[in-house]
Amino acid sequence: MNSSNNVSSFAQRHADYISRLLIASLLTLMLVSINMTVSYASELDYKLVAEPVGKGTYVFIGSTKYFSRKNGGNIANAAYIVTNGGVIVIDTGSSYLYGKQMREYIESTTGLSIIKVFNTHHHPDHFLGNQAFKDVSIASLQEIVNTITTQGEALNNNLYLLVGDWMKETEAYPPTEVVTPGIITIGGHKIEIIALDGHTDSDMTIYDHTTGVLFAGDLIFHNRTPAVANANIKNWLESISKLQKLDYKYLVAGHGPVTTDERAIIQTREYLSWLHDTLQSALDSGLDVSEAIQLTVPDRFKELDILHEEYKRGVLQLYPGMEQAYFE
Ligand SMILES: [Zn+2]
Asked: How far is CA 62 from CA 43, 77, 116, in A?
């Protein structure tokens, strides 16, 4: 009896010891995982703050650098207009997380619902936040809807490679509504949809007649070298001339600070004109891509961020196609 008691109390003590060990291990694991979650969450925060532009319009100004793990892909401008009927969003950033954080910011600061989202073009830094607005009508021009539908997931995967975890759970979610050029009234604002091209095959510009704010999308870059991966520079220059004729009070570029004058328009036009002429004369002189990439970019463009880096990328993206067309 005694000996059996001893055995059972030893077994009991052993079981207690094992269970205390298990609880301690579990607690340690929980603390480690809470700690990891906290540091993970604090790392992945775009810390979005919108800048007011006139009355009732706000812009989240992105970095003027290229995509990186440091900026999480937050390199483009996204905007919103506060109307009597709710909020209109223009572009949704580069990831699901960006879209979610943007939406939280807008809803908590305005106390209003989002009634419409627009995508200015198919580039990933402008539409990959769409997923956070699935319950809202997301509108764009037909060609932009088509390109996001066919190329969106490839662009999403590519951005994941460039910025990593910021893209977690992001899916390419195409616009759900097709708009046509012309004036529509939303929440009492007269919003003009203008169909242009040149930065891509289809670039949608939005002009709010009620406030005088022009959302130029990536047809205008400000203090940042224009990205030309899908560009037709001749068409782009024609689109810029059309934008210049509009009587805007504020111009929201796709990248870089908001402006009230023609400075951003002039910067974009001058760089693109120079790039066009430089690459044409490089073709005329028989330069190959590795030689064209080494041409000197004039000092007068030094205000444009990532100038030399973006010039080289632009030559790599544009020149092979130009060579092919030249020799056909
Ligand atoms: Zn773009």
From this structure: 17, 5, 21
pLDDT in tens, 96-138: 999 999 999 999 999 999 999 999 999 999 999 999 999 999 9
The domain made up of 51-259 has a fold known as: Metallo-beta-lactamase; Chain A (3.60.15)
Determine the distance separating the centroid of ligand 1 and the alpha carbon of 221, expressed in angstroms. Answer: 10
**pLDDT, tens digit, for every residue of 139-165?**
999 999 999 999 999 999 999 999 999
Report the separation in Å between the CA atom of 66 and the middle of ligand 1, taken as the mean of its atom positions: 12
Say if CB 24 and CB 184 are below 8 A apart.
no
State the distance from the centre of ligand 1 to the C-alpha of 189, rounded, in angstroms.
26
So where are the chain's domains? 1-43, 51-259
Whole-number Å distance, alpha carbon 229 to ligand 1 midpoint, is 8
